[in-house]
Design goal:
With 105 residues, the protein is an alpha/beta fold. The protein has helices at residues 20-26, 59-68; strands at residues 6-7, 34-36, 42-43, 74-76, 81-82, 90-91. Helix content is 16%, strand content 13%. The strands form three sheets. A two-stranded antiparallel ribbon has the order 1-6. The longest helix has 10 residues, at 59-68. The mean pLDDT is 90.
Length: 105
């Protein structure tokens, strides 16, 4: 799903791959601000972000795991964002094409 659509600059580390070593390689400084998000944070792209039951979302597990490994600046993306209109820059195979500004002299 990450290949289909994600926030530009995001790093994907699958939850089952969380270990002290993989986290240290991915987020070397434990003081780094980490923004986590999952399917339930976006609306409007069901193939890339299929809705999950709230209890099945991984944000809570991810938040707890990151804190357990010593990462204290962890935040969850919110509120629900519309893929077509969010101001966040999205990337991936299904990223919406946004018009570019044309400047004339």
């Amino acid at each position: 799903m990450f290949q289909r659509l994600h926030i530009r600059g995001a790093i994907n580390l699958s939850f089952p791959d969380f270990t002290a070593e993989t986290l240290a390689r991915t987020i070397p400084a434990k003081t780094t601000h980490v923004l986590i998000y999952c399917n339930n944070n976006f609306h409007g792209s069901p193939s890339a972000f299929p809705a999950k039951a709230l209890g099945a979302a991984l944000n809570i597990s991810t938040f707890v795991a990151l804190h357990t490994y010593g990462y204290d600046n962890v935040y969850e993306l919110g509120p629900l964002l519309e893929v077509a209109t969010t101001r966040l820059e999205l990337a991936g195979l299904e990223a919406p094409v946004r018009p570019t500004a044309v400047f004339r002299d």
